[in-house]
Structures are given as structure tokens and as C-alpha cells.
């Protein structure tokens, strides 16, 4: 039997992994420039953590979690998102003493039992960050500005920021009622289970991907009409701050997000290059989550950006980072030359020149073929003649030119013209 990677997962192969390391490195640098510190949380958590925070009517909890009972009889779940685990750790280790602000970032796999397609996987990967301890719209603006700045930094140009406010819990209660009122004629012909879920959380109707539901909700109530005056003022201030930072955005009341923990600001960044899965990232404010987990009330805001989706857009825009080529293949002929070649490789690597050599005493022709296959920029040849003179021949594989240089100059010659 031949095994394959599980459906909805992918192997990141040599050649592609370089772009992953690069995007993760760019993200870590961008984050530390803004004072964010990395947090790493386990791959699995107590199932209740996600049920309590993502919402027991959300698609994630009802349909998508990888949940199992471990050998000790505990129900555990592979993390479907990074915010709740980060906040669990923040409370557990008291990372944000009262009156202070904590800035955290993470790079994490997430696991969701989705219907796989391009840009939608069962194991996906996120770059996320969370700003804890500030209720100010300036915190929301910081998160959105950093998100847009990151996409710019890595070379993604064509993005759209979609912004909305869900208000606080009182406002959401009146909005839910209005959504339910609008949906009633449609709901009365729906199966009992569907109706019960919609009644438990009518907002789910608004982000449904089902065209029939979308049609039924057309012309429905607008969340912005239900905002309390202070939420409205806050949302207005956020828009001013974004304009001041030159972040373009569109207010889109249909953005409600698939997780239940959001309050006030929610946002997504979209790219046309993504097709159906157009959200490059999503985030927002979640002022009640930490309290919900037994911590002190702490207003917070954050975002998570899908790595796979960012790489799809970079590739579509021709901006994906190519893997740096191997600098040199060290080829040699004869027993004595092999020992000299090993020493030369050591010295080249000390000078930061990447190189490999044959391990199996192959013929020179086979070694040249190997150098070609590895797409090495140069072949460094150590034959009897070269060895006798304490030299090596450095051949440029692209144009066939070659020079002979003393062994101490090989690193320099390989680098030249690179
Ligand atoms: P989310 O919208 O569920 O939010 O996911 C954020 C991003 O992760 C998506 O926009 C997408 O780029 C990527 N993503 C999610 N699921 C998949 C998947 N199945 N395949 C490929 N990419 C995927 C959250 O996870 C929140 N924790 C964000 C947040 C942080 N809110 C506040 N802080």
C-alpha cells in the first residue's frame, strides 16, 4: 500500500519550503519591530476551550474540530485557531498584569475539517498577533495598520480592507432579533436542526455560504443601524485613524466573521488573486473572551493571516521568493584530491559559500551531471594538476567560462558575479 498525505493537508517540499521560512522570518521581524513577542502554544487543548470561545453554534465547533478522547479519558482538540490558546496561556502565566498592555504573536498550524479546495485546507497555517489590554480604537488601528503593512512588506500589492463593527453585547442582542425577524419566513420551511441553530445564533445566517440562505438574507437589517452611540463614535474614530495612517478600507456591514467572540471592530483583508477563498486574513476585537475564560476583563484585538493564502497571492503576482541556488559543486578526481576537496568544502562553508561534493567516488562526468542537476552556480574542480599547484578551477555553469585560482581565493571567485 502506498500512503498519501491525508486529504486537505500538504507536504511542503524542498524548493517551496524556502518561501515558508522567508514569510515566517519576515513576519517575526515585522512583529519585533513593533514590540510584539512570540508565544508558542501546544498543538492541542482542552476541547472546552474552543467550545466556550469560538461559540457552540459556530461552524468550527459544530462541524470542523478534530476532537478525540485521549487515553486518560480527556476530550482534547487540535487547535482550530490560535487566539483562544494564546489567551489561555496569557491568563495561566499572568502575561498581562492589570493596567499593562501585552503584544503577542504566533506562527501556528490550525486544524479544521473543511471541504478542501485551493486555499482551504484541513491543516492550514497562520501568522497571528494579539494586542491585549487596550480598549482604545488606536489599538484596533495598530492591528489593521500592521496587517496591511506586513502585506506591503512582503510584496502583496492588490488588497482590500473590509471593515465592520458588531457593537457591544446589547447592540448585538437587538441586531440578532432583527435578523431573526427578517429570516422568519425563510426559516419556517427549513429543517428543525437548521432552524434551531439559526435561532441560537442568527448572525450565522449572515455569513452563510449557502446561496439560498444568502438570497433569503438579502435586504435584511444592517448591523450599523443597531450600534449604540459609543460604539458608533468608536467606529468613526477608528476610520479617522486608518485614514490618517493612509490605510484604505471599505465599510462592509456583511462582515460578521465565523467565530463568536468578536465585539465592536471586525475586519478582513481580501485579494482578488484568491478567487473563492478571497480572505487573506481576518480579525477583530474580542473584549469579553479573556473574562469568559476566567481571567480578568481585558479588552483585546488581533488578527490571523493564512500563510497558504499569502503564498498563493505572491505566486499569482509573480512575487514569490525563489530559493537561493547552491553556490558551488566541488568536483574532484583521484584519492588525494578527495581529501583536499573535503577541506576546501569546510573552508568555503566557513566563508558562507554553500557547497556539496560527491560522496561515492563517482567519475568526473557523473559529478558534472550531478552539479547540473543541483543547478549549482559554479563547479570547483580539483584535478591532479590543480592539486599540484595548490589551485582549483572555478567554472561558471551558465556561460562555460572558467578561471584557475589559488585555493585561498576560491571562495572569492565563487562569490564574484553572484
Ligand atoms: P479566521 O478568519 O478563522 O480567524 O482565520 C484567519 C485566516 O486564517 C483566514 O483569513 C485564512 O487566511 C486562514 N485560514 C483559516 N482557515 C483556513 C483553512 N481551512 N485553510 C487555509 N487558510 C485558512 C481566526 O482564526 C481568528 N483567530 C483571527 C483572530 C486573531 N481574531 C482575533 N485575533
Give a quick summary of the entry:
With 418 residues, the chain is an alpha+beta fold. 39% of the residues lie in helices and 20% in strands.
How does this structure look, described?
The chain has 418 residues and is of the alpha+beta class. The protein folds into 2 domains: 17-168 and 228-316, BirA Bifunctional Protein, domain 2 (2-Layer Sandwich), CATH 3.30.930.10; 328-416, Anticodon-binding domain (Rossmann fold, 3-Layer(aba) Sandwich), CATH 3.40.50. It is 39% helix and 20% strand. The chain has helices at 17-33, 47-54, 59-64, 83-92, 137-153, 169-187, 192-200, 203-206, 211-217, 229-244, 289-292, 307-316, 335-350, 364-373, 384-388, 410-415, and strands spanning 37-38, 44-46, 67-69, 75-78, 102-111, 123-132, 160-165, 250-251, 265-270, 279-285, 300-306, 328-332, 355-357, 378-382, 391-396, 402-406. An 8-stranded mixed sheet has the order 1-5-6-11-10-9-7-8. β3 and β4 form a beta hairpin. α5 (137-153) runs parallel beside α10. The longest helix has 19 residues, at 169-187. The chain is elongated. The model has no long low-confidence stretch (mean pLDDT 94). The structure holds histidyl-adenosine monophosphate. Histidyl-adenosine monophosphate binds next to β6, β10, β11 and α12.
Amino acid at each position: 500500500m502506498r500512503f498519501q498525505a491525508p486529504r486537505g493537508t500538504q507536504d511542503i517540499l524542498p524548493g517551496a519550503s524556502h518561501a515558508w521560512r522567508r514569510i515566517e522570518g519576515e513576519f517575526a521581524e515585522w512583529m519585533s519591530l513593533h514590540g510584539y513577542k512570540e508565544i508558542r502554544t501546544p498543538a492541542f487543548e482542552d476541547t472546552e476551550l474552543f467550545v466556550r470561545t469560538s461559540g457552540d453554534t459556530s461552524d468550527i465547533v459544530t462541524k470542523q474540530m478534530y476532537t478525540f478522547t485521549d487515553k486518560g479519558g480527556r476530550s482534547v482538540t487540535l487547535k482550530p485557531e490560535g487566539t483562544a490558546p494564546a489567551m489561555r496561556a496569557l491568563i495561566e502565566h499572568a502575561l498581562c498584569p492589570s493596567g499593562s498592555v501585552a503584544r503577542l504573536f504566533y506562527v501556528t498550524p490550525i486544524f479544521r475539517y473543511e471541504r478542501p479546495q485551493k486555499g482551504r485546507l484541513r491543516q492550514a497555517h497562520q501568522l497571528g498577533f494579539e494586542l491585549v489590554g487596550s480598549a482604545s480604537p488606536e489599538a484596533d488601528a495598530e492591528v489593521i495598520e500592521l496587517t496591511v503593512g506586513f502585506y506591503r512588506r512582503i510584496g502583496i500589492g492588490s488588497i482590500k480592507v473590509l471593515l465592520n463593527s458588531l457593537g457591544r453585547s446589547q447592540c448585538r442582542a437587538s441586531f440578532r432579533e432583527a435578523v431573526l425577524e427578517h429570516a422568519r419566513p425563510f426559516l419556517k420551511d427549513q429543517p428543525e436542526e437548521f432552524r434551531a441553530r439559526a435561532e441560537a445564533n442568527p448572525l450565522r445566517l449572515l455569513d452563510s455560504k449557502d446561496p439560498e440562505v444568502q438570497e433569503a438574507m438579502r435586504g435584511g437589517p444592517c448591523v450599523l443601524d443597531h450600534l449604540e452611540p459609543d460604539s458608533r463614535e468608536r467606529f468613526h474614530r477608528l476610520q479617522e485613524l486608518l485614514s490618517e495612517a493612509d490605510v484604505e478600507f471599505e465599510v462592509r456591514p456583511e462582515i460578521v466573521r465565523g467565530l463568536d467572540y468578536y465585539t465592536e471592530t471586525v475586519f478582513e483583508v481580501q485579494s482578488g488573486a484568491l478567487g473563492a477563498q478571497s480572505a487573506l486574513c481576518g480579525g477583530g476585537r474580542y473584549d469579553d473572551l479573556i473574562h469568559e475564560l476566567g481571567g480578568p476583563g481585558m479588552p483585546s484585538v488581533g488578527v490571523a493571516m493564512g500563510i497558504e493564502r499569502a503564498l498563493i497571492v505572491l505566486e499569482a503576482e509573480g512575487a514569490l521568493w525563489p530559493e537561493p541556488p547552491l553556490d558551488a559543486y566541488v568536483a574532484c578526481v583521484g584519492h588525494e584530491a578527495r581529501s583536499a576537496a573535503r577541506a576546501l568544502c569546510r573552508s568555503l562553508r566557513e566563508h558562507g559559500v554553500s557547497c556539496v561534493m560527491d560522496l561515492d567516488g563517482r567519475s568526473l562526468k557523473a559529478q558534472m551531471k550531478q552539479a547540473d542537476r543541483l543547478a549549482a552556480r559554479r563547479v570547483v574542480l580539483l584535478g591532479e594538476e590543480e592539486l599540484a599547484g595548490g589551485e582549483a578551477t572555478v567554472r561558471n555553469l551558465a556561460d562555460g567560462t572558467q578561471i584557475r585560482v589559488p585555493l585561498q581565493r576560491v571562495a572569492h571567485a565563487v562569490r564574484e558575479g553572484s
